[in-house]
Design brief:
527 residues, alpha/beta, Aldehyde Dehydrogenase, Chain A, domain 1, Aldehyde Dehydrogenase, Chain A, domain 2, 5-stranded parallel beta sheet, 15 helices, 20 strands, 35% helix
Length: 527
């Protein structure tokens, strides 16, 4: 029997009637149905925002350490259900099971970190310039947070929003990617069972247009105080524009064209290992996936040969086996990847696999794990000989494709790394500290790795990008609390009379004309 997944508002199923349905299938076995998804409309989204608004004062009134304990309960539940959640994820989006387990671990790490932050939502006591007066600062929740997330990390990335937002006393309306709805429903259930009151977390399943219209309606009605979005740069720009009309600053985590620089001193074996994982892990379907490798001209040919060998021998196929990557997340991403392959030009050199495009009987992949005809599997592709004006160089290519380009000196490498205008993640492989710090200073990315891949995050380190990759907001660690709280200052004057700042301030008299003459005179009592 096929499972029907519905929206959840105020702790009860919603929108499961006669509305549109979507069939969530396993991209590794496209004939296998994972769930039927009941899609809601814009009105359902607004109704979820209204439910969150009703629940928010009560949730904010729960002491922060108690809210932190709820986050701790959620972490333990996720940990206890890690294998089941990871299996659902692998079936629904084709992420290799080992990677899926790592993603679930990231939720646990996030909960563990923010469990303690419930006791550390500190303000400050600030000294006043006047007597008998005290100044204070407080962190207040923003109110209702609307979160829209992509499906390539259907559990970890939502937790980056949900956990700190809930801890800070906000209520949340969460709209996950509809093609990962079963994973979202499982994660929602684990959060609810952690002790959240009804209405504190609401799940809305909807298509893109309905979500945008619902978000617009919620903002216009004054029901949404903060928007968090993870997805493409194009959609992020539309959401940023919408929020700007309501004088709101959204938290935007968008795409990337993440560069890796390989210097003359680099350990090439390590650089190849990093390029293989960051370029082709999750079939290149990460916002932090490697876009272009910039290799010093003295190492270019050797690096390209080594990378081509590594990619050619990498295991690809059934995500429940030991593979580098499995299928594309969904048919829409397979179709888009086909468009990216059309950007390959005659001046490019293509390596990494014997064929381009979909892996099938006419374009086989040696050593493929399983039956490629069952799923949305694509050949890994390395494109060398890039030029700066190539579409492959300038744009995010969400899929298993990596570009390679030679550079002459580090200044040129930094310029090329910044040229596409994204600014999420970056990496440099070098044994020279001067190169590492010069790159850090010059790169526009929000995240820099030295001798490590462009992919990877830790729960206590800020995550986010600049330029086309985001608006400078950060997730993870204590930094994300600035997205989900607002600073409030308070002054308490108990002097019994009005003291006017900058006007009634006491001043201690100084003698500006004093000059030292004979230093010995300072110790002479008769002086």
């Amino acid at each position: 029997m096929t499972v029907l997944v519905t929206s959840q508002i105020d702790g009860t199923p919603a929108g499961g009637g006669e509305g549109p349905r979507l069939t969530s299938t396993n991209p590794a076995r496209t004939r296998e149905v994972v769930a039927e998804v009941a899609l809601g409309d814009a009105d359902l989204f607004v109704a979820a925002c209204a439910a969150a608004r009703r629940a928010q004062p009560g949730w904010a009134g729960v002491p922060a350490p108690v809210r932190g304990r709820a986050i701790g309960h959620i972490g333990r539940l996720v940990e206890a259900n890690a294998e089941a959640l990871a299996r659902t994820m692998t079936r629904e989006i084709g992420k290799p099971y080992r990677e899926a387990l790592g993603e679930v671990r990231e939720i646990v790490d996030t909960c563990d970190f923010f469990l303690g932050e419930g006791r550390r939502l500190y303000g400050q006591t600030v000294p006043s310039e006047m007597p008998d007066k005290q100044l204070f600062t407080f962190r207040n929740p923003v109110g209702v947070v609307a979160v829209v997330t992509a499906g390539n990390f259907p559990a970890a990335v939502p937790s980056w929003y949900l956990v700190p937002a809930l801890l800070a006393g906000n209520t949340v309306v969460w709209k996950p990617a509809e093609y990962s709805a079963a994973t979202a429903a499982a994660l929602y259930a684990l959060f609810q069972k952690g002790g959240l009151p009804d209405g504190v977390l609401n799940l809305v399943l909807a298509g893109g247009d309905a979500t945008y219209q619902g978000l617009a309606g919620g903002l216009a009605a004054g029901l949404v105080d903060k928007v968090g979005f993870t997805g493409s740069s194009a959609v992020g720009a539309r959401i940023g524009e919408l929020c700007g009309r309501h004088l709101q600053s959204p938290c935007l985590e968008l795409g990337g064209k993440n560069p890796m620089v390989v210097t003359p001193s680099a350990d090439l074996a390590l650089a190849v290992e990093g390029a293989l994982f960051s370029g082709f892990g999750t079939a290149g379907q990460r916002c932090t996936s490697l876009g272009t490798v910039l290799v010093h001209e003295s190492r270019h040919d050797e690096f390209l040969d080594r990378l081509a060998t590594a990619v050619s021998s990498a295991a690809i196929g059934d995500p429940f086996r030991d593979v580098l990557y499995g299928p594309m997340l969904d048919q829409r991403f397979a179709d888009r990847f086909e468009e990216y392959l059309d950007w390959i030009q005659p001046h490019h050199t293509v390596t990494g696999s014997p064929h381009l495009g979909r892996i099938d009987a006419t374009r086989p992949r040696p050593g493929f794990a399983g039956d490629p005809a069952e799923g949305l599997y694509y050949h890994p592709t390395i494109v060398a000989g890039l030029r700066e004006d190539d579409a492959i160089f300038q744009n995010e290519t969400f899929g298993p494709i990596v570009g390679v380009l030679a550079y002459r000196d580090l200044d040129e490498a930094i310029r090329l790394a910044n040229a596409p205008g994204y600014g999420l993640s970056s990496a440099i492989y070098t044994t020279d500290p001067h190169d590492a710090f010069t790159f850090r200073r010059g790169i526009g990315a929000g995240m820099v790795s030295v001798n490590n891949s462009t992919s990877g995050a830790e729960a206590h380190l800020p995550f986010g990008g600049n330029g086309k990759s985001g608006n400078g907001s950060r997730q993870s660690g204590t930094w994300v609390l600035d997205q989900f709280t607002r600073w409030q200052s308070m002054n308490w004057d108990y002097s019994g009379h009005l003291q006017k700042a900058q006007m009634d301030v006491a001043e201690l008299a100084a003698d500006p004309d004093f000059r030292l003459t004979d230093p010995a005179a300072l110790t002479d009592p008769a002086a």
